[in-house]
Amino acid sequence: MSDVRLASPQGKWILLTTVLGSSMAMVDSTVVNVALPRIGRDLDADLAALQWTVNAYMLTLAGLILLGGSLGDHYGRRKIFVIGVVWFATASLLCGLAPNVGILVAARALQGIGGALLTPGSLALIQASFHPDDRARAVGLWSGFGGVGAAVGPFLGGWLVDGPGWRWVFLINVPLALLCAPIAVRHVPESMDGRSHGRFDVLGAALGAIALALVTYALIEAREGSLVVAVTAVAGVAAGVAFVLVEKRRPDPMMPLDIFGSRQFTAVNLVTLCVYAGFSGFFFLAALELQVAVGWSALAAGTALLPTTVLMLLLSARSGALADRIGPRIPLTVGPLLCGAGMLLMLRVGPDASYLADVLPALLVLGLGMVTLVAPLTATVLASVDVARAGLASGINNAAARAAGLISVAALPLLAGMGPEAYRSATAFDDAFHHAMILCTAILAVGAVIAFTTVRRPPPDCRRPECRTHGNVLAPPLEADRNAGRIS
């Protein structure tokens, strides 16, 4: 544990390093959606391939993010963070040079592994490096600057797609890594958890990732209705059951099942699954809708999506303070309903849609709904478990959100009736998009019902979030162990 002061030169270098690292992963999760139509045309890819372009990354990130935090605890947080940055950049280079969609998807999966190493590592470095008096402010600055990166992502992605080309959406990570990694090695102190004993739940992580991969494959390829798809679906369920059994019996599981003994924790994670399934499906399809059906450029589509993130950056801290006063039940009920209303307003969007009259009102209502629920969601997760397990609870909640997004991107096009070539037809895609918005609204409504019937006010002495400002629309913020810097 170090005592670096935030105002010192070293403190500023540490903050810069962690912001650069986390922004790489956060920006990448938002810019790729904007590039999908151009990727599809250039690589002659069908809709399933575009789904895999998104899901290959989310698959490895969701499956390994808890393990990534544990590796940093044992082998050194700076070491694992730097490995993650270099890994992420190398995979990004492969994405940018990919000659076909198969290699692009494989490189995206590798990119997710790098994200699983650097995402928890960036916050853990702040928790382990800074003096206790400066830690909360450092975390606030880290989350705020990271949110700015998330807000810039769609705009930057659109500008790159319309300018030098979609490959630069990935290649831009390389110079960022060349800046980030040397600074980390030179200025960030190494730290590790003395309680870590070196036993890692690799089997649990592998089974979890395999289960998600098989189920995702079955959902994306279900249009074929083949025996292979049916066998894959059964195998995915079997792998999920095996994951639960392994986690139940291992002495040091990646995801201890007894944490779900808290009824509140289980309920809030169910709400998380619902709302982030809706969010991920929306942002995956909205970027396509604005380009395919409305006919906007990638830059215009990316810029159009900015209001949701801007609202979260400006109002998430105030939303958290309001939830502290009135309790989380009302925000976690009203928030999903507002988000659903925003998605229903997107039914007005189609060919020749007006941004001010049709798109902006929907995004403002959606953004206000996200502001209303995200901060209380995180606070309730932390309050529902013992303080010593707050980092673990946050990591599980973050992984659950990403897994929900993975399944949503796989299943929503199928349920909405999108064919393999739907994104090449403005009329066909617009019709299916409207069906998808209704489905997203329904799953958000389920989340609101769960919140209203199960969530209760937490005790007054519970753990409070340190990440007050948040701009990532696809996952709730991570919180680390305040004493050891641990995320998992």
Please characterize this protein's 3D structure.
The protein is an all-alpha fold and 488 residues long. It folds into two domains: 9-200 and 254-454, Up-down Bundle (Growth Hormone, Chain: A), CATH 1.20.1250.20; 201-253. It has 16 helices and no strands. The two termini are 17 Å apart.
Q: Main beta sheet: strand number and arrangement?
A: none
**Strand residues, percent:** under 5%
CATH superfamily of the largest domain: MFS general substrate transporter like domains
Mean of residue pLDDT values: 89
Low-confidence stretches: 484-488
Task: State the order of secondary-structure elements, H for helix, E for strand.
Answer: HHHHHHHHHHHHHHHH
Number of strands: 0
The helix/strand class is mainly alpha
Overall geometric form = globular
Main location: membrane
Protein name: EmrB/QacA subfamily drug resistance transporter
Membrane topology: Multi-pass membrane protein
Transmembrane segments: 12-36, 48-68, 80-99, 105-126, 138-160, 166-188, 200-220, 226-246, 267-288, 294-317, 329-347, 359-387, 399-416, 436-455
Task: List its salient traits.
membrane, MFS, 2 domains, Growth Hormone, Chain: A, transmembrane, MFS_trans_sf
Question: Quick summary of this structure?
Answer:
This is EmrB/QacA subfamily drug resistance transporter. This protein is an all-alpha fold.
